[in-house]
Design brief:
The chain has 550 residues and is α/β, with parallel strands linked by helices. Among the domains are: 1-128 and 457-518, P-loop containing nucleotide triphosphate hydrolases (Rossmann fold, 3-Layer(aba) Sandwich); 175-338, no CATH class. Helix content is 57%, strand content 17%. Strand 5 and strand 6 (102-106) form a beta hairpin.
Length: 550
């Protein structure tokens, strides 16, 4: 429920504040005074876009602020979804600065227009002749049926089941497509896998082969040099071992004279031991070196295979080949196991489809259950609103599962006798359409918790008894819902619990729209003027009293 509305620097409104009654609020005024301008400002609170052209004073920012009591609307999940602080008293503010930049706040937290639009739909229902066009949309018609049938939980259950079905269908489709692709490549992948599998590469093998080939290609030179090294170290007439032994004897003979000489002797002894170890290792290496063309060819062939497969698979080492071997193994295994995976996915899809179909049927039964009563109530209401020969029918067709269920509904309407009902968007005139929409909202108001309803001259084109009927219907709606009505009919204006008058102030250099709440006496005068004009008669005044008293 809207508890406060403040508008600053919007169109012809310099500053305006209103505290609506919780019941039926009436707004009247002269044509062009700014009644509908207020709706434009309210539209900003509902997430409509704005630009600087709507500012009365280009040097002052525009501010629209609405305060709402939302404790009965169960909106906490919506606030949580957008990470906005919740409070039972919700304050929405739109600001447009002098540069034309717009900002939106909910409970002083900045928010985007997407959240504002979703929130606005739950807070205010603005009804005008233009807005009635949505009644012709099939999706909106289905929403009406669900609201009447109170299908919130059934819709949520179906939506969950349908999304699960969509997920399972996607998985099944992707598996089938993957299967077809893998099967096309299966033989080639099998060949590549077997080729790498037979090669049986070992990590580090390439480096070892390259080192071994280098030795085999230079085996004769290596063996010769190693033999020469052994000769120089230990077997020649003058060799390192004998020279080192002689050196140790010379230094050892004077080691008793100084600790330094003793240390040198010990170091020579250590060197002799190290030299002996080196000589033994050189001899071992020399004995292992073989001049073998057969081994060389074998190593070259193996390394050539490595290079060939590396080039084929576009990798630079054995590690890359081993990784590809593993990937090919998975693909080969996957092909063999894919049929089982597809069968399992199809079973899951079928189970999800069965569940979605069952929930869609339950939802359909609930929807069908309100058709007859809805048709009767709307037909009776539009008859009261001046269309006694109107026909209102709902046609239903079962369709493939969609995000809204398995139902397609189409509301048919005819306002005239002898004319068969046809789809709404192609039948009713503006005034007839408006009254039909009002009747629909009236039915909804009796069965659901609607937000604040705003009617913008929905009474256009009616008068007399029809106007009285609409006024009474608005009164009944306002017993449980806040209603704000912009009207030009005294019959409706007389029934308000609060009456606001919009007028144009010409006292300053720039015209401005202003609003004031009328006292009982002022209301009487305003109604008399609506009946008889500015120079109303006593008869008009009496008629106004009668309307207010009725």
């Amino acid at each position: 429920m809207l508890t406060k509305l403040y508008i600053q620097n919007y169109a012809l409104i310099r500053s305006l504040a209103i505290t609506p009654d919780h019941g039926l609020n009436i707004i009247t005024g002269e044509t062009g005074a700014g009644k509908s301008i207020m709706l434009g400002a309210v539209g900003l609170l509902l997430g409509n876009r704005a630009d600087s052209s709507i500012m009365l004073d280009k040097d002052t920012k525009c501010v629209i602020e609405g305060t709402f009591d939302i404790q009965a609307y169960h909106l906490q999940p919506l606030f949580e979804a957008f990470d906005v602080d919740y409070d039972d008293e919700c304050i929405i503010r739109r600001e447009l600065n002098t540069k034309g930049k717009s900002r939106a706040f909910v409970n002083d937290s900045p928010c985007n227009l997407d959240f504002l639009k979703k929130l606005g739909l739950r807070l205010m229902d603005v009804h005008s002749q233009h807005e009635t066009l949505q009644l012709g949309a099939q999706e909106y018609q289905l929403e009406l049926i669900d609201a009447l049938a109170k299908n919130g939980k059934l819709k949520a259950a179906y939506s969950t089941a349908f999304q699960e079905l969509v997920t399972k269908q996607r998985i099944f489709k992707e598996l089938k497509e993957e299967s077809e692709q893998l099967r096309k490549e299966a033989d080639y992948h099998q060949f590549l896998f077997e080729e790498l599998d037979q090669a049986n590469f070992i990590l580090g093998e390439q480096e070892e082969l390259e080192d071994e080939i280098n030795k085999l290609e230079n085996a004769e030179e290596i063996k010769t040099k190693l033999f020469q090294a052994v000769q120089l170290s230990d077997q020649a007439e003058i060799n390192l071992s004998s020279m080192l032994a002689e050196l140790k004897q010379v230094i050892g003979s004077i080691s008793a004279y100084s600790s330094n000489y003793e240390k040198l002797s010990e170091r020579i002894q250590g060197t002799a031991i190290e030299l002996r170890d080196i000589i033994d290792e050189i001899e071992s290496e020399e004995q292992q070196v073989e001049v073998s063309p057969e081994n060389l060819l074998e190593c070259q062939d193996r390394l050539s295979l490595i290079y060939k497969l590396q080039q084929k698979h576009q990798v630079s080492d054995i590690k890359g080949l081993l990784k590809i071997h593993e990937e090919l193994s998975d693909k080969v295994l996957k092909v063999s196991n894919l049929d089982d995976a597809i069968d399992a996915a199809q079973k899951e899809q079928n189970a999800a489809e069965k569940d979605a179909i069952e929930k869609a049927k339950t939802l359909s039964q609930s929807r069908l259950g309100v058709f007859e009563q809805f048709q009767k109530e709307v037909t009776a209401l539009v008859s009261e609103l001046g269309m006694p020969n109107a026909q209102f029918d709902i046609k239903h067709q079962t369709i493939a599962l969609s995000n809204t269920g398995a139902d397609e509904v189409n509301i048919l309407f005819s306002a005239n006798k002898g004319i068969a009902p046809t789809p709404i968007k192609s039948t009713a005139s503006g005034g007839e359409f408006s009254r039909l929409m009002f009747a629909v909202k009236y039915v909804l108001a009796g069965k659901t918790a609607l937000p604040t309803m705003i009617f913008d001259e929905i009474d256009a084109g009616i008068s007399g008894e029809v106007a009285m009927q609409m006024a009474k219907m608005m009164q009944r709606m306002a017993a449980n819902h806040q209603v704000i009505t912009i009207t030009h009919l005294p019959q409706i204006a007389a029934k308000g619990q609060a009456h606001y008058f919009v007028y144009k102030d010409e006292s300053e250099t720039t015209s401005a729209s202003k609003l004031k709440k009328l006292s009982e006496e002022d209301r009487l005068k305003e109604l008399a003027q609506m009946i008889g004009g500015l120079n109303y008669s006593d008869t008009a005044l009496d008629s106004a009293r009668e309307l207010m008293a009725d």
